[in-house]
Write a structure and sequence with these properties.
The structure holds two protein chains of two kinds.
Chain A lengths: L2 E6 L8 H10 L8 E10 L2 E10 L7 H5 L5 E3 L5 E3 L9 H5 L6 E3 L12 H6 L7 E3 L5 H4 L6 H5 L5 E5 L6 H8 L3 E2 L10 E4 L2
Parallel strand pairs in A: 1-10
Antiparallel strand pairs in A: 1-8, 2-3, 4-5, 6-7, 9-10
Chain B lengths: L10 E7 L8 E7 L2 E7 L12 H4 L2 H4 L9 E3 L12 E3 L2 H18 L4 E5 L4 H15 L4 E3 L7 H11 L4 E3 L6 E5 L11 H13 L3 E5 L5 H5 L2 E3 L6 H15 L5 H7 L5 E2 L15 E4 L4 E4 L13 E4 L2 E5 H8 L5 H8 L3 H14 L5 E4 L2 E4 L3 E5 L1 H4 L4 H14 L9 E3 L18 E2 L5 E2 L42 H4 L14 E5 L3 H4 L3 H8 L3 E6 L4 H6 L2 E4 L8 E2 L4 H4 L6 E7 L12 H11 L3 H12 L15 H13 L5 H7 L1 E5 L2 H4 L14 H17 L29 E6 L13 H10 L6 E4 H7 L6 E6 L4 E9 L6 E5 L30 E2 L4 E2 L3 E7 L1
Parallel strand pairs in B: 6-7, 6-23, 9-10, 9-19, 10-11, 23-24, 24-25, 29-33, 30-32
Antiparallel strand pairs in B: 1-2, 2-3, 4-5, 4-25, 8-20, 12-16, 13-14, 15-16, 17-18, 21-22, 26-27, 27-28, 29-36, 30-33, 31-32, 31-36, 34-35
Classes of the chains: A alpha+beta, B alpha/beta.
Chain lengths: ~200, ~850
């Protein structure tokens, strides 16, 4: 089985809901975005297009991050999820340099948002983020274990995200990728990402 | 997420309702060991259907913001003003309420109107217990909403008169062509946002075309099939040209609808008023079959003529429809092109596309009922109507929908739930429009939750009177909101008012930042005894408050029925949802729920019985659940009675605490009510003309020179707003826009949302300027500039050079730039747009009390 996420760029409204859904689900520290959105514009006034590109770890099947990891902290599971074992990670950050999608973040030291010690929420959430190591999206593995979709999928207001097993040819994600011509980001790099985008 | 190894002694999901904006979406809150660890949408609620916007997801950081105000404060520095240190002293609740009671008691005995009551809509449930109930029981008419320039005055007035509701929304389930004027419906905020975002994505996926009229490419224009960047304040000219094309060139209009559901056939005399039957006083139409005048509801009337001039009672009279057609003739596409800067050919094409998409004459069967099918919708909000030409502009846009019959039928522009038959077990809540003696539509409810409510609707209009109230709501008795106390309180004698306000109760609003230029607001209110009840010691508390009371946030309080059905519940078919807002955690420190404070104050001020009578009216409570005016209740007991009064003995407070949500199915006759009534919406606003003349008489007597009467017209019209008029040395218009991750200025204090603006989203903390304009001025991306208003202040910010904004416009998101000591996280973030807005009559549409929410500016480097 191989988990993939399909993001329909036609439906996506670039609201940053995925970024905050991820943040509130995973209690990521300040400046850390396991999910985020890029905005860009093209053309000249008045023929302008603005577009939004939601990003997260691509869970590549040939992950550049894994190849450079000196300790074997980054592994690829049987279900396709690329994971970081924080006990094995030594914080060398080679993987951050290698990742073509900017999906990884280094948690240097414990920081609070309001800058005066951790608040009640952060006290509960931040111990899950050891310092001195690299972290990233794990497709909300803890939710998958409970048969729940990743937080960004479950919350998406435009219902622009789909999640499922691409090895099952009858799954919704397989259908969408086939029928709506799902594209991977930077396929020329040969990383074989598990996030597919449907055209806007 | 909880991966912690600590022992878990509690792990609960509690149903409740969001309140980070006015939409009150259904939520489920995850509480572990007494701490809120996650907020998700509640899939059982029609308000959001399990999905939340970024703001709603970020509510945890509002709850646990260490900068919240935690105990009552008293100002010890007698000096007030921007930047002044109030030298707060912590006091007890008893001391605070004693001080407040003493002041408000004296005022109430002297003249209760000397109390101003103000608030802001995100905390809409307690706000209306204050604004709609407590204020009325205290006896002051001087209420105002201090979301000020963010409020939809003209839109609400038209929603009330054409749709019998408070707001409007398009019926995306059936719409094929959506024309959006200055609004982000389904993309960023707006009514029923989280549900509408889902419907919008679905509609666009099935091929609905979206055309966005907006000076700036924001969230809606980004997703539009076509972007029409026009000059701010020129939307009315575009709509008038489209009306002209539809009515006079293309001949695309829905004659049967106009005859049956509008006053298009009513005859208008030379005086601009209805021609009325001498005996009955009813409006007269021309019977085309018998060639004679008849009253509009004469059973002998065969076919009311839509067009033509006729001689009745010795004068030549014309149908309202003819008058409309003639009045728009001057608006050729070329004339509109000159004003909007849009190509005339584009205007022609859009008008035809819209008219044809309406599929006039077609029907659709829904739940076994055959209904008119008009899958073309217009929708508009602040970008279009937030100008001092609000009335004429909004009316022009609304009439696009009316002339093609695309109003309150499948696929069209819809009033937000004006008909509610209530739960099948009890028939509560209940309200529906009625028909007045002239055949016109009368809203069934205005301010309130179930009939009768506490405030009469804008129609039928009351007669204008010489002002006694500082909000001038007696002189112009229909706007929903007004910032006018800011003007009148400094010079009441100019308005013939013989008193000044002495106190201000300000709930959940930051009016020093939210109304407009802050110096004007502080100057107007600095002599008032001011009580601020809020989450933070914000700019308003710092500049004005004598007493600050610590409020609960929405995760700490109990609000019965935190949904306002005719304001933000989703339109069209689907479920009705009633829900609860309940405390997920107890209020920390000494924070108290405003509704409980109001109950306490009503008691201390000796008007508890009046307060409880008003609560009965507001919630439509009847025996045995109506409150006994003489009894004393806790807030929980009142909430229990409201739920039981609505849904029966078994579904009281405890039931709602456990279940969170009660749903029942909306009926076709509720969702698409228009074809089932005989009520007519006006295409000719005779009463604006008629009451306008009475207002003019009073205004002339008072000698109010800046009061512009030119917009009091029965038909749509356009003149440039103040900011659109050329001014020597001021070559640009500054507009504000909304993004999906902020509410007004409040969320700049939320670190997760701040982070979106600051680190991942490229525009919202910057001043957007078009590439060509920036080049001409020698301004580069990242430069610090001043934006200076011709009529008010100036603001500083960093430039983002973009293509997606009209070359004659600068765009600023929301209203940032906080400076209060009590909001240190928000301090200095974003740009304080409102400093640019002049608060005066000249920049106000006097029909709807709408401010010009853009400004004539120049931009230069610091």
């Amino acid at each position: 089985m191989r988990y993939v996420m399909v993001i329909d760029l036609k439906r996506c409204i670039g609201c940053y809901g995925c970024q905050i859904a991820c943040k509130s689900e995973n209690a990521t520290p300040p400046g850390v975005f396991w999910a985020r959105v890029l905005k860009q514009e093209a053309g000249k006034f008045p023929n302008v297009r603005r577009s939004s590109l939601p990003l997260l770890c691509m869970h590549c099947q040939d992950p550049a991050c894994q190849q450079v990891c000196p300790t074997g902290a980054t592994t690829k599971s049987d279900n396709g999820i690329v994971e970081v074992d924080s006990d094995e990670c030594v914080g060398c950050r080679y993987c951050m340099m290698a990742c073509p999608y900017g999906a990884r973040y280094f948690n240097a030291k414990e920081r609070s948002y309001f800058g005066q010690g951790l608040n009640e929420y952060e006290k509960v959430g931040y111990p899950n983020h050891p310092t001195g190591v690299v972290g990233k999206c794990d497709f909300c593995r803890h939710r998958l274990e409970k048969k729940l979709e990743p937080a960004c999928v479950a919350n998406c207001m435009a219902r622009a995200r789909y999640f499922g097993d691409v090895d099952d040819p009858n799954s919704e994600v397989s259908h969408l990728i086939r029928e709506k011509r799902g594209q991977q980001l930077h396929p020329e790099l040969g990383t074989d990402p598990s996030v597919y985008y449907l055209p806007a | 997420m909880v991966k912690t190894t600590t022992e878990i002694w509690e792990d609960e999901w509690i149903p409740s309702a969001c309140s980070i904006c006015y939409n009150q979406c259904g939520i489920k809150v995850h509480r572990v060991n007494g701490v809120v660890v996650k907020i998700e949408g509640n899939p059982d609620s029609a308000l959001g259907m399990g999905r939340l916007c970024p703001r709603g997801l970020a509510g945890i950081q509002m709850l646990y913001d260490p900068h919240r105000v935690n105990h009552p404060l008293r100002r010890t520095n007698p000096e007030k003003g921007i930047g002044v240190d109030p030298q707060w002293e912590r006091i007890s609740w008893d001391e605070a309420l004693d001080i407040i009671t003493e002041r408000l008691s004296k005022i109430r005995q002297d003249n209760p109107h000397k109390l101003l009551f103000s608030g802001c809509v995100p905390s809409i449930a307690p706000l209306f217990v204050g604004l709609g109930v407590w204020r009325a029981a205290y006896g002051t008419a001087n209420a105002f909403l201090s979301d000020g320039h963010q409020c939809g005055n003209a839109e609400h007035l038209l929603a009330g008169t054409l749709h019998a509701a408070t707001t409007t929304n398009p019926d995306l389930a059936y719409c094929n062509y959506l024309l959006i004027f200055g609004c982000h419906v389904g993309f960023s905020g707006y009514y029923a946002y989280t549900t509408m975002a889902q419907r919008m994505a679905e509609a666009r996926s099935r091929g609905m075309r979206v055309v966005v009229v907006d000076p700036m490419m924001n969230t809606a224009a980004e997703k539009a099939d076509e972007w029409l960047p026009l000059l701010p304040g020129s939307d009315g000219a575009l709509a008038l040209a489209m009306l002209n094309l539809l009515l006079n060139e293309y001949g695309i209009y829905d004659a049967p609808y106009l005859r049956e559901h509008t006053n298009a056939t009513y005859l208008i005399g030379e005086d601009g008023l209805y021609v009325r039957d001498g005996a009955s006083g009813k409006p007269i139409v021309w019977d085309a079959v018998s060639s004679m005048p008849r009253v509009f509801d004469d059973p002998l009337l065969k076919e009311p003529a839509l067009e033509g001039s006729h001689k009745v009672g010795g004068q030549w009279v014309r149908t309202a429809f003819d008058m409309l057609r003639d009045s728009v003739r001057e608006w050729t596409p070329e004339a509109a092109a000159a004003v909007t800067t849009l190509p005339a050919d584009t205007i022609r094409r859009i008008a035809r596309e819209f008219g044809e998409a309406a599929r006039i004459g077609s029907t659709i069967v829904i739940d076994g009922k055959e209904l008119p099918y008009r899958p073309a919708a217009v929708i508009y909000f602040k970008g279009a109507h937030g100008h001092d030409n609000a009335w004429g502009t909004s009316l022009a846009i609304e009439l696009l929908a009316e002339v093609v019959g695309a109003s309150n039928v499948p696929g069209s522009l819809m009033g937000c739930n004006p008909v509610n038959f209530g739960h099948p077990d009890t028939g509560m809540p209940h309200y529906q429009p009625t028909v007045d003696k002239d055949g016109m539509l009368v809203p069934g409810l205005w301010f309130g939750m179930s009939q009768p409510g506490t405030t009469p609707p804008p129609f039928p209009p009351r007669d204008p009177r010489k002002p006694r109230f500082l909000n001038l709501i007696d002189l112009v008795p229909w706007p929903i909101s007004t910032f006018l106390p800011v003007i009148t309180n400094t010079q009441p004698e100019s308005f013939g008012i013989d008193y000044k306000a002495e106190a201000l109760v300000n709930y959940g609003s930051n009016l020093v930042m939210s109304l407009g230029n802050p110096e004007t607001t502080v100057n107007a209110f600095k002599d008032l005894f001011t009580v601020c009840i809020n989450l933070w010691v914000d700019e308003t508390a710092e500049a004005l408050a004598d007493i600050v009371l610590p409020d609960t946030c929405y995760l700490e309080r109990l609000d019965p029925v935190p949904v306002w059905y005719h304001h933000h519940h989703p339109v069209g078919m689907g479920d009705w949802t009633c829900q609860i807002r309940q405390p997920i955690v107890p209020p920390a420190h000494e924070r108290r729920h405003f509704s409980e404070v109001l109950l306490d104050l009503a008691n201390r001020l000796d008007f508890l019985p009046d307060f409880q009578v008003m609560l009965n009216l507001f919630y439509g409570l009847k025996p045995p659940y109506a409150l006994d005016p003489e009894a004393e209740y806790t807030w929980e007991e009142i909430c229990d009675r409201i739920y039981k009064g609505w849904f029966g003995e078994k579904r009281g407070l405890e039931w709602f605490k456990e279940h969170g949500v009660l749903n029942w199915k909306k009926q076709v006759e509720e969702a698409y009510w228009k074809p089932f009534t005989h009520a007519r919406g006006p295409i000719y606003f005779e009463w604006i003309e008629e009451k306008g003349r009475k207002i003019k008489k009073i205004v002339d007597e008072l000698g109010l020179e800046d009061w512009d009467m030119s917009t009091f017209k029965a038909l749509p019209h356009w003149r440039p707003c103040q900011a659109l008029q050329p001014r020597e040395g001021y070559d640009l218009q500054a507009i504000y826009y909304r993004v999906p991750f902020h509410t007004f200025s409040m969320t700049y204090e939320n670190p997760w949302l701040d982070e979106v603006s600051r680190l991942t989203e490229p525009y919202s903390y910057f001043i957007s300027i078009n590439t060509e304009t920036a080049r001409r001025k020698g301004i580069k991306d990242g430069d610090e500039v001043w934006v200076e208003s011709a009529d008010a202040g100036r603001v500083r910010g960093q430039v983002k050079v973009v293509e997606g904004v009209h070359p004659q416009v600068v765009g600023i998101a929301h209203n940032g730039g906080h400076w209060a000591r009590g909001m240190p996280f928000a301090k200095g973030k974003g740009v304080f747009f409102n400093a640019l807005l002049a608060l005066d009559l000249k920049h106000t549409d006097m029909v709807s009390f709408t401010m010009d929410c853009d400004a004539r500016v120049k931009v230069y480097k610091t």
